[in-house]
Amino acid sequence: MKKRTFDIVAQQKIKRLAESALSILPFTGSIDYRYEHVGDGTFTDTIIGAVNRNPNILIVNIEWYESTNEQDIRDIIHHKARHLYQWYQVNKYRSGIKTDENERIVKQWSDNLLPGNYICNTPRTEIQYFKQPVEFDAYCYSTFLRAIESCDANGNISGSYVDYPGIGDELIRQVTQNIQSFSSIDEIMKIQKILKV
């Protein structure tokens, strides 16, 4: 694969990907974008594409961006944008402000994000990692956006999804329900236009 150029155009693309994914949600926060080379502090290799930190920081691994495919970039940035949204809702919940999501779900995210409760993805913890509330939700969201992007004018979805360990069937069931919740193909097409980056 040809190496992808990381420049101001790439930075603008990442910003548009994240902001388009957040624009269809009730998110009004601002995002601080940071770009690092492997070894700068956050990344030790090119496997991890991006990380998010509370509050509203999205850090992108430059070497990962330069070497990965287009769909993986879209999926990871959409996934990380959903994590920013989760933190936004958790911060509202912890401050006693009414959340935009079901309070039971936001409480699960909040509990999952407490120190010591989050499970990192390792070969031994892979299934537990994918099943925890914040990760399952973020993978559902990025898969949902991928499905919307592949939807044709008749509402048929031609894309595929990644079968994540331990959550694949549940994930696709959730994503299918989300897509079926639209009242018209026009709503899907409107989101498609937002996601065109």
> Biggest sheet, strands in spatial order?
1-3-2
Strand percentage, roughly? 5-15%
Strand-pairing-aware structural class: mainly alpha
- Total DSSP E strands: 3
Number of domains: 1
Inertia-based shape: globular
Number of helical elements: 8
- Work out the radius of gyration: 17 Å
Task: Report on the architecture of this protein.
The chain is mainly alpha-helical. It has one domain. 53% of the residues lie in helices and 7% in strands. It contains eight helices and three strands, in the order H-E-E-E-H-H-H-H-H-H-H. It has helices at 8-23, 62-67, 70-94, 103-112, 126-131, 133-150, 168-180, 185-195, and strands spanning 32-36, 50-53, 57-61. Strands 1-3-2 form a three-stranded mixed beta sheet. A hairpin with a 3-residue loop joins strand 2 and strand 3. Helix 6 packs across helix 7 (168-180). The longest helix has 25 residues, at 70-94. The mean pLDDT is 92.
What characteristics describe this protein?
197 residues, 53% helix
Topology (SSEs and partners):
Blueprint: H1 8-23, E1 32-36, E2 50-53, E3 57-61, H2 62-67, H3 70-94, H4 103-112, H5 126-131, H6 133-150, H7 168-180, H8 185-195
Parallel strand pairs: 1-3
Antiparallel strand pairs: 2-3
Helix pairs in contact: 1-3, 3-4, 3-6, 6-7
